[in-house]
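Researcher: We're teaching a course module on how sequence relates to structure. For the next exercise, students receive a sequence and then see the predicted structure as C-alpha cells, so they can try to spot secondary structure elements on their own. Here is the exercise chain.
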Amino acid sequence: MTESGEEEGLTLDKRTMDVLVANIIPTSRYFEVRFDHMQSQIDDIKDDIKDFRGDVGKRFDETNASVNRRFDAVKVDMGKRFDAVKVDMDRRFDEAKVDMNRRSEQVDKRFDEVKVDMDKRFDEVKVDMDRRSEQVDKRFDQIIASIDRLGDKLDYRDEKQRGFTLRMFTISIGISILGVLGAFLKSMGII
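Model: And here is the predicted structure for the students to work with:
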C-alpha cells in the first residue's frame, strides 16, 4: 500500500510473461531426454535378465556335468569293488572246495551269510542312491522355482515403472497445456 492508502499492483508485460513461461514449463526436449534415459534403463534391465538367465543355464549345465562325473566315478568305483569282491569270492570258493568234504554245512552257512550281507549292502546303496537322486531333483526344482519368482518380480517392476512413467508424462503434458492456455488467455487479454 502507498501512503495514500491505495494498493500497488504488479504489472507484467508480454516479454516478462514469455520468459517466465519458458523457464517454468519444461520443454518437450526435456521429456524426450527423460524418456530416452528411462528406455535405456529398461533395456539395461532386459539385458541383465538375459545375462542372468544365461548364467543360471550355464550353472545348471555345470552342475549337471558335475553330477554326471560323480555318477561315472561311482560306477567306476563300484566296478572296482565288485571286481575285488569277485576275486575275494573266487578265492573263498576255492578254499571252500578244498575243505568242502569236511565242512560242507559250514560252507553253505557262510555262503548264505555272505549272500545276505551282499544283498543288504546292495539294497542300502540303492536306497542311498535313490535318496540322493531325489535330493538333486528337489534342488533343481527349487532353483527353477526361484528363477521363475525372480522373473515375475522383474516383470512386475517393469510394469509398475511403465505405469509411473505414463502418469508423470500425462501430468507434465497437462501442466504444459495449462501454461500454454494461460499464456494464450493472457495474450488475448482475458486474464
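Model: If you want an answer key for the exercise: The first helix runs from residue 14 to 24. DSSP finds two helices and no strands in the chain.
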